[in-house]
Amino acid sequence: MPEEILRRVLTAPVYDVASETALELAPLLSKRLQNQVWLKREDLQPVFSFKIRGAYNRMVHLSESERKAGVITASAGNHAQGVALSANKMGIDATIVMPRTTPPIKVNAVRRLGGNVVLEGDSFDEASRFAKALEVEKKLTYIHPYDDLDVIAGQGTIALEILRQHSKPFDVIFIPVGGGGLISGIASVIKQVSPSTRIIGIEPEDAASMTEALKAGERIVLDQVGIFADGVAVAQVGEIPFRIAQTCVDEMFTVTTDEICAAVKDIFEDTRAIAEPAGALSVAGMKKFVDKYAVSGLDMACVVSGANMNFDRLRHVSERTEIGEKREALFAVTIRETPGSFKKFCELLGNRRSITEFNYRYSDSKQAVVFVGVRTEGGHAEKQAILNSLHQHTYPVQDMSDNEMAKLHLRYMVGGHAKGVNNELLYRFEFPERPGALLKFLINMSEEWNISLFHYRNHGAAYGRVLIGVQVPPEQQADFEIYLKSLGYPFVNEQENPGYQLFLRPTH
Description:
The chain is α/β, with parallel strands linked by helices. It has four domains: about 1-45 and about 150-320, Rossmann fold (3-Layer(aba) Sandwich), CATH 3.40.50; about 50-140, Rossmann fold (3-Layer(aba) Sandwich), CATH 3.40.50.1100; about 325-400, Alpha-Beta Plaits (2-Layer Sandwich); about 415-505, Biosynthetic Threonine Deaminase, Domain 3 (Biosynthetic Threonine Deaminase, domain 3, 3-Layer(aba) Sandwich), CATH 3.40.1020. It has 20 helices and 18 strands. Helix 1 packs across helix 9 (about 180-195). The chain is globular and about 80 Å long. The N and C termini lie far apart (about 65 Å). The mean pLDDT is about 90.
């Protein structure tokens, strides 16, 4: 299989529409990590993503009858733009099915390139099923975003550029993984030309379909897929990419949302360019690789795969960056509700530390719980020093730095415990960002189930994050869980979350 990919790569005419992108040294990252870090700038393509390569390479192989009939694909953004631009250049009609949750910036970009946009479904999988139905109904040709030899070969042209642009083979190359087209294309070429180069794939922790597939020895389907890095939000990797990865990928790493946000900042500081979350995966994984193996003096390349970032998402990215860099820690600390105790607590934190936030509300005459953010320039060691100091001074403290509910909701809504609220259950949801999504949740709810808490923030993503408290009689809680599963929205029970217990749980 890799031999066939290399053969197709060598004849791929991608430069009819794509650019040979720069391979740039990242001086700040290189100095900080004590390795030579190079960025392969696929964010500089005409559609701000590598996807143009594979889409065009597939479409130039269409037969004359297929060109006349037209093509169809399903995509949430980058592949859609690649197909639309290619179709425009070749004079082919292109239908692009996109989820209704797709941000307007991506929908409008596809329309500007001449694509006929059809909005259908709340997810890529729903859009894909609809596209496959239209393919049969209208006798169109489906352009798969990753599970196709010509698409994979188009992405593999990146490897040829990397080999030409650098004076010697890289020690390691880090590549984002969604459906697997990008990593299988690059790995197929690199492993035949420079077998000693390590190929490392990077996925989000909540969308690790390739990682789990390689562990299992077969393709698996994830029950839920996180959508922060929407460019790689794939529940199952492609069949062809999986087979290639089994022999050509050396290792997989997964990264958190916070680590991705920190990588977006790293790329910005070295290039003044803003990568999309999926585009920054390689840098996030590279940092984790360096930390795990304590390596130095290596030549390492990171593929920055795209820059189709909604401007309003930058707020969320900037909020999470400090934690991702281990430069901010979040704590829930219980202090005595007596005169001077608040001042004493602040003095213990130290006047040389920057407090990033403080949330507190009086609720009890004996003790108070404060939600505090502290800048920790010394990383994990400094956070641990703060925890040790608080423990030594007998302060009950919870480290909330890795508590997703706290970071998404609690820090914006601390306001004290509710009084007289019985049988409250707490859930964290992801709702599609479209009209009617909340109504779908409410319309079939039993009138005996009362919403007692609600918090929502729009982060500029396809899905909004919602925290909901609902009063459900004990004998109906099993029915309520069945109802939640029937909605099809990803949800997490946060009943035992320490943030809920400390700040929000009702008192009687």
